[in-house]
Amino acid sequence: MDILVLVLGILLLLVLIIKFKFNTYVSLIITAVVVALGLGMAPAKIATSIQNGIGAQLGELALVFGFGAMLGRLVADAGGAYRIAHTLINAFGRRGLQLAVVLASFIIGIALFFEVGIVLLVPIVFAIAAEAGVPILTLGIPMAAALSVTHGFLPPHPAPTAISTALGASAGLVLAYGVIIAIPTVYIAGPLFSKLAHRFVPDAFERRGNLKALGPQKTFKLEETPSFGISVLTSLFPVILMAIATVYELVFHGGKLPKTPNGLDNVIAFIGSPSIAMLISLLFAMWAMGYARKLPAKAIMTTLEDAVKSIAMLLLVIGGGGAFKQVLIDGGVGDSVKNLFVGSGISPLPSLQFKCNTLTTRP
């Protein structure tokens, strides 16, 4: 019976979002309430369950996503992402355009959310494709693949961070394994797939597209943007901090923090935790992309405020997912699902990854 209620709840969620075009956050809360009632939960406890679910889900994630969005917006607004893309494309030349786009998109994708990266890179891809005389999709597919993979596989993005937190996994190790998996995935879904697509649907590669669909575009003068080195360093700063902590733990403690850590152990663990790594990285970005370029404090703070506004609904959706999850747990569905998978050899995690990626990219 519990499983039936869960299935009906998921169907209700899909109908609200797809059929009636309800906001995802509102749909999640409505579904959580309906499912809770269907599971026989006491009405007086439903609100408490939803509140606990939202609070537990947004704990560290709100810090990581908030700081991450601010860092990404600072890099984008300062022209750092623009500098990275153009420098790599110029360095690799016409024959290496796809590789340059993949590398630039991968670096930018670590710092920026998927939709922000798309809006930022699409105009660059259009311009480079026109200048080099190559089809837009030849560069666009690798760009989208790299951005999508970083969004789905690598902390501090929503899905991998949420799963790392839920399972108590080291964000640094998740990042390391994510990069290992991401490299072949990007190649297969990007350059390789674009070649196959060109062979089977050549007409699609003849289309020119229309940039007006993305709205007004911010333009940069290359000489006024931050240097390539500082732009890359700023984008990768949280990755570097988490990687330092992971490598340190692997080399000196076999991958786990000792039960009685010394002073250095505590410092490394502190700077390598996702929330602190993002905070330190944000402070560095504020200096590198703002104060060091003589930008007034008010302009920098405005950028940070705009970044938070852009992820407000994302955080609510993640919180709504936490509410739905908590209702399922408190209603006993969690145990039913666990018993369903016990001994089957099937892990429910792939569906969790899919849902995290899907929910965090829908408004």
TrEMBL record:
| Organism domain of life | Bacteria
Topology in the lipid bilayer is annotated as:
Multi-pass membrane protein
Subcellular location, in the record's words?
Cell membrane
InterPro entries noted in UniProt: Glcn_transporter
Q: Which UniProt keywords apply?
A: Cell membrane, Membrane, Transmembrane, Transmembrane helix, Transport
GO cellular component terms given for this protein? plasma membrane
Q: Chief location of this protein?
A: membrane
- The region annotated as signal peptide is none
**Which regions span the lipid bilayer?**
27-46, 58-76, 96-129, 136-154, 166-189, 228-248, 268-290, 311-329
- Show the GO MF annotations: gluconate transmembrane transporter activity
Checking PANTHER family in the record gives:
GNT FAMILY GLUCONATE TRANSPORTER, HIGH-AFFINITY GLUCONATE TRANSPORTER
Query: Belongs to which family?
Result: Belongs to the GntP permease family.
Q: Which NCBIfam families match?
A: gntP (TIGR00791)
> In its UniProt entry, what is this protein called?
Gnt-I system
